[in-house]
Amino acid sequence: MGKKQRAIRLQAEIYQQFDADISLDVPGEAYGGWKTIPVELPLERTALVSMHTWSFDPPEKIMGLFHAVEYLGRADRIMGTAYPRLLSAVRKARMPLFHVVGGKSYFRDFPGYKRTVKLAGPAPQASPGAPRDPAVAALNKLRIKHGFPGEHNLKDIDVAHNAVSFPPEARPLDTEPIAENAHQLNAICREHGVSHLVYVGFAINWCILMSPGGMMEMSRLGYLCSTIRECTTAVENKETARRELCKQLALWRVSLAFGLVFGLDNFVAALQKLSDKRGAKGKRGRSPKSRSSSR
């Protein structure tokens, strides 16, 4: 007989994008909207992916970064409250935990990254991109000056990116794999037999969605890509920031195009229940002699 598969049972949120009613002025208002369904996740085939969790210098040193990337305050709050609960439960339950990084060099000395490079090998050569075009370069300068992030913020942003590190709450253990692109993350997943990735980190409508190793790339390789609502935030604009409307739209997109949306309390409780069962089974299996000697 094979090894019994460990699984957690919990509720998942999914958006019911049917049935539109063409008799209404706005047919889409007949959609079912957010629903909750029970699911089972085989733990050895499901991994938590912590993506782009960055720690920067104090704001007074790099205020230009905070001027342009307004969600960093929300990310810090999530890192201080939600992340410790989640990662503690994941590690205790022995659920696979992978880290996806982006940037220059802050991760390159970690054992988990060095093992990944050896495992994955060189990435396939990319196709040549667009030809050099001075007109496009000029348009991009205008975008930076008038749109994002503003020319006066560039110096601070460059300083921040050169001093980035892992925050303590998201620092990988030496045994945890680290990847910086889809090629490496796919190699890790195949080595571990993982086909479902639950992404947390920042930001759900930007890096997690479309950066190397994010949902768009991994879903094209056949992976189910889910998220945990309270463990991410979104890039917002002036009109959406107060109500975090871009995050709501991003979670809707995850449900429709990539995977499932979980709640933090439900996810942690399911992992803790599994850990408690394992602990109780271990205690029952100990002999009277070993129990007495441990006192």
- Largest sheet, strands/sense/barrel: 6 strands, parallel
Taking Cα atoms only, what radius of gyration do you get, to the nearest Å? Answer: 22 Å
**Continuous helix count:** 11
**Strand portion:** 15-25%
Shape: globular
**Average pLDDT over all residues:** 93
Can you write the helix and strand succession as a string? EEEHHEHHHEHEHHEHEHH
| Unreliable spans | 290-295
The appropriate CATH architecture of the domain at 45-122 and 138-261 is 3-Layer(aba) Sandwich
Sheet/helix structural class? alpha/beta
* End-to-end Cα distance: 36 Å
The CATH C-level class name of the domain at 45-122 and 138-261: Alpha Beta
> Would you report the number of β strands?
8
- Oligomeric assembly: single chain
CATH superfamily of the domain at 45-122 and 138-261: Isochorismatase-like
Structural commentary:
With 295 residues, the protein is an alpha/beta fold. It has a domain at 45-122 and 138-261: Rossmann fold. 41% of the residues lie in helices and 17% in strands. The chain contains eleven helices and eight strands. It has helices at residues 63-68, 72-92, 111-120, 134-146, 154-162, 182-192, 207-210, 215-220, 245-258, 264-284, 288-293, and strands spanning 7-16, 33-42, 46-51, 97-100, 178-179, 196-202, 224-233, 261-262. Strands 5-4-3-6-7-8 form a six-stranded parallel sheet. It has a two-stranded antiparallel sheet with strand order 1-2. Helix 9 links the parallel strand 7 and strand 8. It is globular and about 70 Å long. It starts with 6 loop residues before the first strand and ends with a helix. The relative contact order is 0.17. Residues 290-295 have low confidence and may be disordered.
